[in-house]
């Protein structure tokens, strides 16, 4: 009886989820339109500025999530190898990137996140660890990596708030969540 009720509950939830997608199709499409199903001719509505902004937001979210995974691996490598110099800077740089993302400065968020990732790579290597191949910049990230300011310029901006950075010893143990 219990299995039947659980199966029924799961089926109802799946049905409700499917119905909600059909009830508001523009919410999930690439060319969403708050007025309904499309433009005056029934086709998709192009909002070029909004589309570019959404693309930058999605790119930024993608880069920040990948860097967060690298920093998680970096913390583990620092725990194993006991060399954590620069970990607080990498974490603070990633947090700064997240703040930029939350304020809508998506391109600079990507630049700072890529800098945080490079700092994390240095820590992994200092601990005689291997950087996983999937963490290296892919095609999308390489496009931004070639555009970004130099490391010195990015570090100089981070150093303005150096007092808020924290200590490397503490950075090894803190739980980091980069929810966007």
Strand residue percentage: under 5%
The number of E-state strands comes to: 0
Write down the domain tally. Answer: 2
Please provide the ordered H/E string of secondary-structure elements.
Answer: HHHHHHH
Arithmetic mean of pLDDT:
77
Percent of residues in helical segments?
55-70%
> For this entry, what is the oligomeric state of its chains?
single chain
Return Rg in Å.
21 Å
Q: Which class best fits the helix and strand makeup?
A: mainly alpha
**How far is the first residue's CA from the last residue's CA?**
41 Å
Ranges with pLDDT <50 over ≥5 residues?
Answer: 15-48
Summed up:
The chain has 7 helices and no strands. With 180 residues, the chain is mainly α.
Q: Can you describe what's shown?
A:
The protein is mainly alpha-helical. It folds into two domains: 1-46, no CATH class; 53-173, no CATH class. The chain has helices at residues 2-23, 48-81, 87-102, 106-126, 139-147, 151-159, 168-173. Helix 2 runs antiparallel to helix 3 (87-102) and helix 2 runs parallel beside helix 4 (106-126). It is globular. It starts with a helix and ends in a 7-residue tail after the last helix.
Primary descriptors:
180 residues, mainly alpha, 2 domains, 7 helices, 65% helix, globular
Question: Which helices and strands, and how do they pair?
Answer:
Layout: H1 2-23, H2 48-81, H3 87-102, H4 106-126, H5 139-147, H6 151-159, H7 168-173
Helix pairs in contact: 2-3, 2-4, 3-4, 4-5
């Amino acid at each position: 009886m219990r299995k039947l009720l659980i199966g029924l509950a799961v089926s109802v939830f799946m049905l409700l989820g499917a119905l909600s997608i059909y009830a508001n199709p523009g919410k999930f499409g690439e060319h969403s339109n708050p007025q309904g199903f499309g433009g005056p001719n029934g086709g998709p509505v192009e909002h070029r500025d909004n589309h570019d902004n959404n693309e930058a937001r999605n790119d930024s979210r993608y880069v920040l999530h990948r860097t967060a995974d690298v920093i998680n691996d970096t913390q583990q490598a620092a725990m194993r190898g006991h060399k954590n110099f620069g970990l607080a800077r990498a974490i603070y740089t990633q947090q700064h990137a997240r703040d930029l993302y939350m304020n809508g400065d998506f391109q600079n968020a990507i630049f700072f996140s890529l800098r945080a990732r490079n700092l994390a790579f240095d820590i992994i290597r200092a601990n005689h660890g291997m950087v996983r191949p999937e963490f290296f910049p892919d095609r999308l990230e390489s496009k931004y990596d070639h555009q970004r300011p130099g490391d010195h310029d990015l570090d100089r901006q981070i150093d303005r708030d150096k007092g808020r950075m924290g200590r490397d010893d503490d950075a090894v143990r803190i739980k980091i969540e980069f929810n966007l």
